[in-house]
Amino acid sequence: NAYLGGIEGVTLETLTHDFYAPAQAHGYEFIQTEVTAIDKANKIVTTTSGTISYDILVLSPGIVYDYESQFPAWSKEKIAQVSRACPAALMPGSEHLALKRQLENMDDGNVVIIPPASGKYRCPPAPYERTSMVAQYMKSEDIQGKVIVLDTRGGAFAKGAAFKESWQDLFPNTIEYKGNTKIVDIDTQKKMVTYKEYKDVEDETGVEKTVKYEVCNFIPINKASPVIAMAGIKTNASGFAMMEGTSFRSVSDKNIYVLGDCVTHGVPPSGQTAIWGAKRAASEIVAQLGGKAFDSKSNLPAQSANVCYSMVNGNPNEAIMVTHDFDINPTTGNLKSKGNVPKPNDGNGKFRSKGVGKLTTEWFNGVKRDLFL
């Protein structure tokens, strides 16, 4: 999102990483391939590069977009057309480049951002940070228009109070948030979104409206990667893996662990949560391979297990943050979380500050060092 917003020092190179260098430095093998089948009975993974046997299998395949559930009447051709014209940019790869190119090439006009309509999705604050960063980009480039958010959450979204405060302070004439909407159609030829807007949650009728756009960022409903189903482990209705207590091990297979977006723990699907979970799983795997017991409830509750930053301004770079404490859910036995959005000491009573903006950069650089050095 900072890349989309044109934040100084954030380039394509910032987001491009070498996976082979850490493999060489730390003595593991990195294979760029595609998984086509998982035989958990015989502990074999089949890929386009051949088969790999395993003792312990760790899955972290992420999410896919579920256009079909959200718009069952759309043809495959329509889905392909919308996904190209209105890139979701929630998964790594060319989507972010496409959205960046569209912003750089746009004339005066509106940018429409459509967060996932329902369900669990990757990085809950992402669409709203993107709203800030696109508004920042339009401001810096003197582009006349609005950033229009067509949401379903009525303003009750991740870091909502902090985002809305910054929007009012920084971009009062640019960001237009509509919290009770339902997308009816997207016409990529006319660059038109048709939607229904409701007065409140009790309004069942709504009013059908249209909005023209220069750029549209449509993020559909998310579901778990089909790799999870391929593994044949127990999942919920959305395909997310059912977990064994507070562990990151599958409830139905002691030799399969799941990390990142695809777990059913009640914790935010963020980058920091994935890192925290990976370190916990690594400790459990070492114990399992060594024939030792491991208490997955150890070190719980975990204070500030998740820390998530969102940029809301550029020049000066300012950000907001949320922390989550993790603990045991007494009903499910899985992990639960409790969030807190603090007002920083240097924020002059606001949720955002330059200090938090600096922490955002430091966190990102720290993650890069952990993963790629």
Structure commentary:
This protein has 373 residues and is α/β, with parallel strands linked by helices. Among the domains are: 34-62 and 225-296, FAD/NAD(P)-binding domain, CATH 3.50.50.60; 65-221, 3-Layer(bba) Sandwich (FAD/NAD(P)-binding domain), CATH 3.50.50. Helix content is 27%, strand content 25%. It contains nine helices and 18 strands. It has helices at 20-26, 67-70, 76-85, 94-105, 126-140, 160-170, 226-230, 271-289, 354-372; strands at 35-39, 44-47, 50-53, 57-59, 63-65, 111-114, 147-150, 175-178, 181-187, 192-197, 207-212, 215-218, 222-224, 249-250, 253-258, 302-313, 318-328, 335-340. The strands form six sheets. It has a four-stranded parallel sheet with strand order 8-7-6-12. The longest helix is centred in the C-terminal third of the chain and has 19 residues, at 271-289. The chain is globular, with a radius of gyration of 21 Å. The chain starts with 19 loop residues before the first helix and ends with a helix.
